Q: What sequence folds into this?
């Protein structure tokens, strides 16, 4: 997801066409000195982990706290001390000051100071309430029903009365993720709530048992699987908070789906695909089919619950409404809808008539995607959006900011720098923060107006501290895909003390998608997982975004739709082979792979499908069989489960346990025993078949750990040990202890 003693050389003898060939699978001992890895090497590698390098950078990560009049403040580090900065875009001013002592010279009123202090002391724990736009009410769940609390008086009002177990209101449960927060959208006037009653009464359950002395505790919850006859369904309602009165939409229940992700919540606590009209009279929403192939844009009258179908979109594979943000907007004032579609192989915006549902015009066109529609000015009929792959000669994953007229004219690039741009719009929409960087170049953060003019520079990141420890950025790489034609992009990490006369094992850090790739974002980061730290131990580490991952064309994203066992592996192998031809210090005979979650699925898959290429693999928390993972994931990317005449189904060929007999190399499997995202039974299915095939393998079960154990110090150390011992051919220092963040190392 995210080293060197006496060499033990093995010879494998093969008979082929009457001849005997000898293949050496470990270090070429006659070509270079036997490796030695010490505790000092591990300590140096540890120094490149995120918690150790992040403090060496200043001027990164401007987090604005918005005040009145588009002003904002943020805190930055200056020579190790926190400094408050007050910014006024209208005056192009950036002033270091103290809100606590003199209210920034009187520039802040007492309420703004109080807000800044509240933000500074705010904790980011689980949110169990949804506060209304006017801040006067907070909605919450109690005993499966929705309640409202008056913030000023603490008076509570029960809004619904018929909620029951597994049929509650505003329920946040997608199987793979769940919480006690309510899922809803307040009306603009804070008087009504759009939400749903979620029916899970006949949905199958998932079970986990904790590890403790005495009787274990059972955790059971609703967790539908692909092919289940019953999945979670939502019955849409609107609640008048003042009455209170519940209006149920006059339509059948919808599958628990969204146009964007495998939940109905895709950004923070925001319920996706639901938009109130500004006057609170209607709600626009999208109903998504169980398999994500059919979308229906609808409008409901909140007074009586009547629903009108406006238009629909049908796709052959799976529909997606953007990247990280739903990209449709209802425009009641002009009786129009802005709709997102990839029908021409790129993510584009289209204009529809809100009454007739007829297509009026295409707004964007050409190569490249609209990733996120950020602002719509209905008066000037202008749109602002984050796009990618529209500028030739630039990394197609770099995000840029554009504006365009709703008539499709006047497309303008607002962020000219050849870099990845992180955009934060001011609440008024009149200005935006632009933090631009690349994996190699640290960020510069500026304020721009809506025409892209730079108003004031906020920060230029200082990485002198990184340079002092001989830190090097990863190398951007471009290789050809499996077809020999398509360009793939990635990053390569090499030891800071690279010796070009040596041969280094190559390790692939993989995440196959389909919702993201191996690299992740293209913005600057002083550490990406433990990739550079692992490289410091004597490896070349690569991350390649293969075909089947997003941010490219629709056909690129759908490259292995319905064949999830592909896992981008043909592209990973092709890319690694090309890199070995390009760089003679890469030893392709010593290839390893590791990954977490979907990357764990891919890493084990690689060891089974390419057993002669990958010699060592580490698979963490892998969803090895999509029939054992949540329904929305598999049914979106693999398709609905279809039984075959041989008592099997279309999911079976993609299941790792059915390929486990092919294992030849060294494989480490790891899973948390309380993983409620990817249940540990996924890994145990593989374990069972490895035992059945009489294969040697290694297994770590982490008691009471959930899904995110990949960066836990113990797991990181065991990952390093496994590659050092089995791929580098060295003995790692015994039980080296990586210190958690905040704990000093004692000599």
A:
């Amino acid at each position: 997801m995210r080293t060197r003693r006496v060499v033990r050389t093995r010879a494998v003898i093969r008979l082929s066409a009457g001849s005997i060939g000898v293949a050496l699978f470990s270090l070429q001992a006659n070509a270079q000195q036997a490796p030695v890895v010490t505790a000092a090497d591990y300590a140096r590698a540890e120094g490149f982990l995120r918690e150790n390098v992040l403090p060496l950078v200043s001027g990164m990560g401007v987090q604005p706290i918005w005040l009145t009049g588009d002003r904002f403040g943020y805190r930055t580090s200056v020579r190790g001390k926190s400094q408050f900065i007050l910014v006024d875009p209208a005056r192009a001013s950036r002033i270091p000051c103290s809100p606590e002592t003199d209210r920034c010279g009187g520039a802040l009123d007492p309420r703004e100071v109080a807000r800044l202090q509240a933000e500074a002391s705010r904790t980011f724990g689980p949110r169990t309430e949804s506060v209304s736009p006017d801040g006067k009410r907070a909605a919450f769940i109690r005993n499966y029903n929705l309640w409202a609390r008056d913030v000023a008086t603490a008076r509570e009002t029960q809004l619904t009365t018929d909620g029951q177990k597994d049929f509650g209101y505003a329920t946040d449960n997608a199987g793979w993720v769940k919480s006690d927060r309510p899922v809803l959208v307040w009306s603009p006037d804070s008087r009504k709530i759009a939400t749903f009653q979620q029916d899970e009464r006949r949905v199958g359950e998932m079970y986990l048992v904790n590890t403790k002395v005495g009787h274990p505790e059972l955790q059971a919850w609703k967790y539908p699987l692909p092919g289940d006859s019953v999945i979670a369904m939502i019955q849409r309602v609107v609640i008048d908070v003042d009455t209170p009165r519940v209006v149920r939409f006059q339509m059948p229940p919808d599958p628990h789906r969204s146009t964007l992700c495998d939940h109905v919540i895709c950004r923070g606590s925001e319920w996706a695909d639901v938009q109130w009209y500004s006057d609170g009279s209607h709600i626009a929403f999208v109903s998504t089919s169980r398999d994500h192939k059919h979308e229906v844009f609808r409008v409901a009258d909140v007074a009586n619950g009547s629903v009108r179908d406006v238009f629909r979109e049908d796709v052959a594979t799976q529909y997606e409404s953007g990247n990280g943000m739903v990209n449709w907007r209802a425009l009641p004032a002009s009786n129009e809808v802005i709709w997102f579609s990839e029908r021409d192989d790129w993510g584009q915006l289209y204009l529809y008539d809100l009454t007739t549902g007829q297509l009026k015009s295409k707004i964007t066109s050409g190569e490249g995607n609209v990733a996120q529609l950020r602002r719509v000015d209905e008066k000037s009929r202008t749109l602002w959006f984050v796009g990618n792959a529209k500028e030739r000669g630039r990394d197609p994953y770099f995000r840029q900011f554009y504006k365009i007229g709703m008539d499709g004219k006047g497309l303008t690039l607002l962020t000219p720098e050849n870099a990845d741009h992180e955009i934060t719009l001011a609440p008024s929409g009149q200005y935006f923060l632009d933090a631009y960087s690349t994996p190699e170049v640290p960020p510069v953060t500026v304020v721009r107006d809506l025409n892209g003019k730079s108003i004031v520079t906020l920060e230029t990141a200082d990485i002198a501290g990184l340079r002092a420890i001989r830190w090097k950025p990863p190398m951007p790489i471009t290789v050809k895909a499996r077809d020999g034609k398509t360009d793939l992009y990635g990053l390569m990490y090499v030891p800071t003390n690279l010796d070009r006369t040596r041969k280094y094992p190559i390790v692939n850090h993989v995440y196959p998608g389909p919702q993201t790739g191996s690299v992740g974002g293209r913005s600057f980061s002083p550490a990406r997982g433990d990739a550079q730290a692992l490289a410091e131990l004597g490896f070349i580490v690569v991350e390649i975004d293969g075909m089947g991952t997003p941010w490219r064309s629709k056909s690129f994203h759908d490259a292995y739709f319905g064949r999830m066992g592909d896992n981008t592996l043909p592209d990973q192998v092709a890319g690694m082979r090309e890199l070995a031809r390009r760089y003679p210090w890469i030893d392709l005979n010593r290839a390893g792979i590791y990954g977490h979650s979907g990357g764990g699925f891919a890493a084990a898959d690689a060891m089974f499908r390419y057993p002669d290429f990958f010699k060592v693999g580490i698979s963490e928390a892998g969803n090895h069989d999509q029939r054992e993972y949540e329904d929305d994931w598999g049914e979106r990317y693999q398709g609905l489960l279809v039984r075959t005449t041989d008592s099997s189904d279309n999911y079976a060929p993609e299941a790792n346990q059915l390929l486990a007999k092919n294992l030849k190399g060294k494989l480490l499997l790891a899973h948390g025993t309380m993983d409620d995202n990817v249940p540990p039974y996924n890994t145990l299915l593989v374990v069972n078949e490895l035992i059945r095939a009489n294969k040697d393998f290694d297994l770590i079960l982490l008691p009471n750990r959930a899904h995110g154990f990949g960066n836990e110090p113990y797991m990181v150390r065991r990952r390093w040990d496994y590659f050092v011992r089995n791929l580098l051919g060295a003995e790692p220092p015994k039980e080296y202890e990586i210190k958690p963040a905040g704990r000093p190392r004692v000599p």
User: Anything to note?
Assistant: The chain is about 15% helix and 35% strand. Confidence is low (pLDDT under 50) at residues 1-31. The two ends are 31 Å apart (CA to CA). Residues 305 and 601 are 44 Å apart (CA to CA).
